[in-house]
Amino acid sequence: MTVNGNHNREQQDGQTGTEMVKRGLAQMLKGGVIMDVVTPEQAKIAEDAGAVAVMALERIPADIRVHGGVARMSDPDMIEGIMRAVTIPVMAKVRIGHIVEAQILEAVGIDYIDESEVLTPADEENHINKHRFKVPFVCGCRNLGEALRRINEGAAMMRTKGEAGTGDVVEAVRHARAVNSEIRRIRAMDEDELFTYAKNIQAPYHLVKETAELGRLPVVNFAAGGVATPADAALMMQLGMDGVFVGSGIFKSGDPSKRAKAIVEAVTHYNDPQILLNVSRALGEAMVGINVTPETLVLGKRGW
Amino acid sequence: MNIGVLALQGAFIEHEKMLRSLGVTVTQVRLPEHLTDLDGLIIPGGESTTIGKLAVQYGLIEPLRDFAQRKATWGTCAGMIFLAKDIGHDRQPLLGVMDLTVNRNAFGRQIDSFERAIPIKGLVGDPFPAVFIRAPIATQAGVGVEILAQLAADQIIAARQGHLLATAFHPELTHDSRLHQYFYDIVDQTR
Question: Which of residues 77-106 of A touch B (CB under 8 A)?
């Protein structure tokens, strides 16, 4: 039996890999925390802390920054080890535009692929045509135009880019606010203005129109890139994000298990200051963090 | 009518919208005191392990069990797992109020998730657009349980036991409100 199971008999009359099914899994992750893990042991800690999914990778973004070099898809053996360790969904990253890394992860039976700027891009003009895959994709964005371009390519979930591996939430806030304020603006536009706006932000008109009608992105949108504390996570939820990715923030801190639990609780109770106070106490050392300055702003600029 | 939606994690906003479209007042339930004055409750889809842990952490297990024993309660996907009496080898907190044996992630991983139109007993009209996302399945049901839909003899995907309703799929992700109307009627009859 392969990792992705022998269950197709039951579904033969049903349709797999549809837009509904791909976007639907992201719906089930809402109000939850997705944690970066590099070993099966970390994956267990994340699951026990209440993570809704884990992102399996060889090096967390903070270490990618330190090590430099080309950052690629992780070893499938390492990813499968993590898939065996937990029952929650497992995600993994591919390089922007690297179609074959995505095909390999689909063959592994991964639950979600992150076409991620955190890895070194493989294509400086094109992203992956994500419609060609049964496995759903999540992509990063800094603004509405970027989000809708990715959705047009088939992304079933979005996240802010933030600035991964810094422990500085400022870029994630910037990206969340940018998307929110653009959506508020298009809601007030008439059709003539929407045509021009779509052209200006280089996004397909039908998605701009759909977003204006919905008053939100047509897919689930998580915060990512620099979330390090329960307060950071709750801040992103109050800014209207559907959930939170935490990368380096947990396993680069003094007490990963306790911090992971605290962030999970902060995302559920993001509007309850008394609970946020309680979960923020005595968490031990936070990740050291790197201030985001013009020099550190590297990863977020990747993606076109 | 005031129906609560357990809002610890998952697709609770979609249930809320569906209920609002039926003219129901909706309360998000995150703490035991939020259950006061509710006529019914929906336990939504999400990650069942996460919802279980948060429910334990915030003292919700007993209050939820007490509520489900008395009042109309509907579990979708993760919520179905939560209502079941038996989930085999998996260890997670359960309410154990519905006489079902449920198998988590019964169809495999996400790439095996699927949608399919399925006739449901008690619903008039076309088959229901059922969306299965890493869905569980009930393999056995007790004598007091009415099976509303199944894919095979040991694959029950919708069931009712008096004021309790369970579905393995996600009506809240579709535009079809017939199952929400069905639950509304249960709430109306039992409150």
Answer: 87-89, 106
How many domains does chain B fold into? 1
Identify whether B14 is a catalytic site residue: no
pLDDT 10s digits, A103-147 = 999 999 999 999 999 999 999 999 999 999 999 999 999 999 999
Question: What's B158's domain CATH number?
Answer: 3.40.50.880
Q: What are the chain A neighbours of B155 within 8 Å (beta carbons)?
A: 10
Q: What is the pTM of this model?
A: 0.95
Q: Please count the other Cβ atoms lying within 10 Å of the Cβ belonging to residue A7.
A: 15
Query: For the segment B1-18, what is each residue's pLDDT rounded down to a tens digit?
Result: 999 999 999 999 999 999
Contacts within 8 Å (CB) and 24+ apart, A58-61:
A60/A36, A60/A165, A60/A247, A60/A248, A60/A251, A60/A252, A61/A36, A61/A118, A61/A164, A61/A165, A61/A247, A61/A248, A61/A299
Query: Which residue segment(s) compose the domain that B14 sits in?
Result: 2-190
- Which stretches of chain B sit within 8 Å of chain A by CB? 7-14, 30, 45-47, 49-50, 53-54, 57, 77-78, 90, 104-116, 131-134, 151-152, 155, 170, 173
Longest dimension (CA), chain A: 55
B110·A32 Cβ contact <8 A? no
Q: Is the Cβ–Cβ distance between B69 and B35 less than 8 Å?
A: no
Residue A135 CA to residue B143 CA, distance in Å, equals 39
Contact at 8 Å (CB) between B40 and B71?
yes
Closest residue of chain B to A17, computed from CA coordinates = B111
Q: CB–CB of B42/B83 below 8 Å?
A: no
